[in-house]
Every structure is written in structure tokens, then in C-alpha cells.
Design goal:
There is one protein chain. The protein has about 300 residues and is mainly α. It has two domains: about 1-25 and about 150-299, no CATH class; about 25-145, no CATH class. Helices cover about 70% and strands about 5% of the residues. It has helices at about 1-20, 25-50, 55-75, 80-90, 95-110, 115-135, 140-145, 165-190, 205-225, 235-260, 275-295; strands at about 155, 160-165, 195, 200-205. The strands form two sheets. Strands 1-2 form a two-stranded antiparallel ribbon. The protein has a two-stranded antiparallel ribbon with strand order 3-4. Strand 1 and strand 2 form a beta hairpin.
């Protein structure tokens, strides 16, 4: 299992890093594909859990919310009617409008259920799925658009003098992968005390601590890449590491409710797409929030 996991990572990691360095529109296209595949898996999990989401409608709503969020992040690449709507709604407003519309449409679809309880569960869980995957995943692109207050995402920063957006995206990847790897290996080697046994039996307290150490070390590298002072990694590492762990546990909770061990089998050694990106769903908003509220970055 570990060998398969490592081989798969060795193949996929260079592709992901290349897309991050290429920037837009390739990163947004990749995230769009990720959202689609993750939504398909999420809908299958909700269906397996007996929540019976309207499958096609939930998929369309999730892609609509993700598309609106990606369009807001890429305002300079948008034209025509969508640009007019974006100017009126504002960058945060467009994803919010899309999410509100999705919730309303999914509510209307639930009216057709004969059992009100079943209709409510279908509406609540499908709306959750749209927000969970369709709204949170594009925050990876938000991170990749972070820039100095007087610059843009392409402004050269840090030790390698690469674009600010790419540098922040690399920091996100380094911290999340650092946490995941540190937690996995530490838990595998010395893990004894269960973290949250009823949600994820394989997670241990020792793994959590080991992951936070490696996340902080990775944040040190990330701070060098984006040009932050040396104290920032001491906050970013634990903050993003804990967010990554929370994202992993949130998906585990969903899988337990559905009676599934994995979200899918798309990625050998890693399960499905949702299994691979679950940590990023919480980690990317956490890093984006820190960058804007504490580190003084803008998008």
C-alpha cells in the first residue's frame, strides 16, 4: 500500500507542480476537473448514505458555484455578460449569488418528495455538497492569486523570485503534503493513542503531532518562497496543518455516514479524488484568510 501510494504521488506531484507554475488559465481548468470528479464521488457517497440527492441537479449546481468562484478569482480573464454580472455583484458577491441560487433550486427539487423528512434531508445534504466541494475547492485558486499590496499575482517574490501567486500555491501544497506525510508516517511508526476513533480509527495523537512538526517545517520553506518574516511559519504551520487534519476528518465523517472506506478508486493508493483533496478544502481557506488578514496580501 505504501509503495503504491509513493509511486502514484511520484507521478502526479510533478504534474500538479507544473500546473501551479504555469498559472492561469491552466490552474483553474485543473481545479474545475477536480471539482467535477469530487462532486461525482460526493453525490455517490450521499446516495449510499440514503440521502438521495438529485444527482444531475446537484452536480450542475456544484459546478455552477465553482465556476462562479473561479470566474471571480480570474476577473481579468472574464469578458462579455459574465464580466458585466461580476462588476455588478462584486468578486465575493458572484459566488454568493450562485450558492444562494443553488440552494433555492435544490429546495424546489425537494418539494417533489412524498415524505417531507426525506425531502428535507435531500435538500440539506445536496446543498451541503454544493458548498463543501463547489465553494471550498476553488479557494486553491484564491491562494494562487495572492499578491503583495502594491503588486499582482505575477510579481516576483521570495528566495526564488517567482510569481507571488505560484509561490503561495507552492506554500499551500508544501504545508498540506508535509502535514499529510508527517502524520501518516509518524502514526504508522509510533502511533498508539487514537485521535477520534469513531470517525477515523487510523488517526492517532502521535500522527497529529508529527504532522504539525512537518507542516511547520514546510511552512518555513513556504515563507522563504513568498518572502515572509521568520515568525510566520510558527503560526502558518499549525494553523494550516490543523485545518488540513480537520478537512480529512470531515470527509471521513461523510464516508462513515455512507458506510464507505474510500470515496472512490480513481487514484491508486490514495482512493478517490475527494480522498486526495479533502485536506485542501479546509487548508486553502485557512491560508488565504491568514495571508489577507495577517500577512497583508491581496487578491
Amino acid at each position: 500500500m505504501l509503495r503504491t501510494r509513493v509511486l502514484t504521488a511520484a507521478v502526479l506531484a510533478p504534474v500538479v507542480l507544473a500546473v501551479v507554475l504555469l498559472g492561469e488559465p491552466w490552474l483553474s481548468l485543473l481545479i474545475g476537473v477536480v471539482v467535477f470528479l469530487a462532486l461525482v464521488e460526493l453525490i455517490a457517497l450521499l446516495d449510499a448514505g440514503g440521502f438521495e440527492p438529485p444527482q444531475v441537479l446537484t452536480l450542475a449546481a456544484g459546478m455552477g458555484v465553482a465556476g462562479a468562484t473561479l470566474a471571480a478569482a480570474n476577473q481579468s480573464l472574464v469578458s462579455g455578460l459574465l464580466l458585466d454580472v461580476l462588476r455588478v455583484a462584486g468578486r465575493p458577491g458572484l459566488p454568493l449569488m450562485a450558492l444562494v441560487l443553488a440552494i433555492m433550486v435544490l429546495a424546489a427539487a425537494s418539494f417533489t418528495r412524498g415524505d417531507p423528512r426525506a425531502g428535507f434531508l435531500s435538500w440539506a445534504t445536496s446543498s451541503f455538497g454544493v458548498a463543501y466541494v463547489g465553494l471550498l475547492t476553488p479557494f486553491v485558486v484564491v491562494v494562487a492569486h495572492l499578491a503583495p499590496p502594491d503588486g499582482s499575482l505575477s510579481t516576483a517574490v521570495g528566495g526564488l523570485s517567482i510569481g507571488s501567486g505560484s509561490a503561495w500555491a507552492l506554500m499551500l501544497i508544501a504545508v498540506v503534503w508535509g502535514y499529510d506525510s508527517g502524520a501518516y508516517l509518524t502514526g504508522r511508526w509510533i502511533g498508539r493513542r487514537r485521535l477520534i476513533d469513531h470517525v477515523s480509527p487510523s488517526k492517532t495523537v502521535e500522527g497529529l503531532l508529527g504532522g504539525l512538526v512537518t507542516a511547520t517545517m514546510a511552512a518555513g520553506l513556504g515563507a522563504w518562497l513568498v518572502g515572509l518574516d521568520a515568525w510566520h511559519p510558527l503560526i502558518i504551520g499549525p494553523l494550516v496543518g490543523l485545518a488540513a487534519q480537520a478537512g480529512d476528518l470531515a470527509e471521513s465523517l461523510l464516508k462513515r455516514a455512507a458506510g464507505r472506506k474510500e470515496s472512490g478508486f480513481l487514484i491508486p493508493g490514495h482512493g478517490g479524488m475527494l480522498d486526495r483533496v479533502d485536506s485542501f478544502l479546509f487548508a486553502a481557506p485557512a491560508l488565504a484568510g491568514y495571508a489577507m488578514l495577517v500577512a497583508g496580501r491581496v487578491t
